[in-house]
Amino acid sequence: MTDRYADGMRTRRAVLGDAHVDRAEANRTPFDTPFQTLITEGAWGTVWSDDTISRRERSMLTLALLAAMGNFDEIPMHIRATAQTGATKDDVMQAFLHVAIYAGVPKANHAIKLAKATYAEMEEAKK
């Protein structure tokens, strides 16, 4: 295990939570191990572990980029991560408003729909 992998795993757990990472690790197979290593070292060990900008800012950027590119499958996961990163609902809405202007209203609309559903699930889980 590299230092970057170890850093990535710590950051990944801090942002996404142990339960999410434990599920991902339990589902790892020899086929997807190279990909899991890549994202743990690259996304989490390099980008998310860098302290140049805050995790709150990274959350907002990530959500905006996912929506702008139409990569909607990961939006709920990153909405749930805002509980750890400090990005508020208002922050997320501002990110999606930028998406609407710069990448298209339909993409922002779909991202907002996913965010609303995920926030509702999060609220329900607190009860």
Automatic annotation (TrEMBL):
One of its GO terms (molecular function) is peroxiredoxin activity. Residues 35-117 form the Carboxymuconolactone decarboxylase-like domain. InterPro entries: 4CMD/NDH-1_regulator, AhpD-like, CMD-like, Decarb_PcaC. It comes from the Bacteria. Gene3D superfamilies: AhpD-like. It holds the Pfam family CMD. Transmembrane segments: none annotated. PANTHER family: 4-CARBOXYMUCONOLACTONE DECARBOXYLASE FAMILY PROTEIN (PTHR33570), CARBOXYMUCONOLACTONE DECARBOXYLASE-LIKE DOMAIN-CONTAINING PROTEIN (PTHR33570:SF2). This is 4-carboxymuconolactone decarboxylase. It comes from Seohaeicola zhoushanensis.
